[in-house]
Amino acid sequence: MLKKRLTEFCLSDPNMQYIGILVAGQVGAGKSSFINSVNNVFQGRITSLALADSCSGSSSSFTKQYETYCIKNGSSGGLLPFVFRDIMGLEPDKLSGSAPEDIVNAVFGHVREQYKFNPKSPLTLENEYFNSDPILSEKALCLVYILDADTVHFTDDRLIEKLQTVRQRISEKGIPQVIVMTKVDEACPLVQNDLRKVYSSKKIKEKMELCSAKVGVPLNHIFPVKNYSYEIDTNDDVDVMILKALDQIMHLANDRLEIMQGMYK
Prior knowledge:
- By secondary structure, the protein is an alpha/beta fold.
- Helices cover 35% and strands 15% of the residues.
- The chain is built from eight helices and six strands; from the N terminus they run αβαββαβαβαααβα.
- Strands 2-3-1-4-5-6 form a six-stranded mixed beta sheet, with helices on both faces.
- α4 links the parallel β4 and β5.
- α2 packs across α8 and α3 packs parallel to α4.
- The longest helix has 29 residues.
- The protein is globular.
- About 2% of the residues have low confidence.
């Protein structure tokens, strides 16, 4: 039902082919893996649309440049009405990982495809990859933060400050923001044994509340998921968590599109 609803999703503006969703978050939390997991659901098999790093405990971002990913409907081959935009991961150090300014610029459509992120020198107006006059489809209508449920208690305050800076800047423009909380199976033994208990787990609820308190995103905009990581086949329990998150993200982004239509007519 969830899959059918998303493949048949109609945008509030019939002239829009797709809406943009920006994926940001801490290094190693599974940004690229989340994009792949969404693609897996619709293809019905394990895919590697976005290259992900398999090195455990990696302290630097595997994603180095700005990439856009379209998702196809596996049964029809047609494109779904959204695209993911992937950026360099966030790191605690001031001169490491994605700069808050670059994330904000990406949300507002000022970053061109294939821009290579430089933590020590964020994108400026003078750079050839700065898009000074973006169209609506180049903007992000929802920002998705990817956070690791297993390590959220130990997340460096410097990284949280970066997230809060981004949140404040784009909240002023009314852009919806959500948290996709990954690795829930590693964070709770109950969920590891039965993924269907993710919404009844006290431990997962506590971690969602902590995410909300730290970043400022309301609880009903936080979605626990398990990305595909070691599996060689898809399964319904993982798919449902991914689809529940995506369904809410799409509705929030489409609500924003409806509001912005009046600005762009």
